[in-house]
Amino acid sequence: MTTPPHRYQVVVLPGGQSFEAQAEQSLLKSLDEAGIYWPRSCRNGTCRTCLGKLLEGQVRYEVDWPGLSAEEKQAGCILPCVARPLSNLVLLDPLAD
Ligand code: FES
C-alpha cells in the first residue's frame, strides 16, 4: 500500500480561491493545477516575477538561495516557483493591487 502525497490547504486572497497543494511540488505547480493564474518567468527562484506574499503558514525552498533578502522573507515575501508548503497557507494574489 502506498502513502498518498501530503497535501495542504491553500487560500488565495482577496478572491478566496482555495486548493490543495502537494508538499512535494512547488506552489506554482499546485497553483497551475488549480487553474489559478500566477505570474512567472524563470521558475528557478532568480527573476522574482512570481514574488508574492505569504499571509499565514510556512514554506520551504527547493533551492538554497531563493532570490529573497532576509528582510523580505521576514516580511512574508515568497517565490512560489521554488517554494513548497510546510503547512496550510494563505497567499496574497500579487495581481490584486
Ligand atoms: S518565476 Fe522567477 S523567481 Fe519565480
Automatic annotation (TrEMBL):
- Respond yes or no to whether keyword Cell membrane is given for this record: no
Q: Which residues form the 2Fe-2S ferredoxin-type domain?
A: 8-97
**Presence of the UniProt keyword Electron transport in the record:** yes
- Which terms does the record give in the GO molecular function aspect? 2 iron, 2 sulfur cluster binding; metal ion binding
InterPro entries per record: 2Fe-2S_ferredoxin-like_sf, 2Fe-2S_ferredoxin-type, Beta-grasp_dom_sf
Cofactor(s), by name: [2Fe-2S] cluster
Q: Name one Pfam family in it.
A: Fer2
Name used for this protein in its record: Ferredoxin
Organism name: Paucimonas lemoignei (Pseudomonas lemoignei)
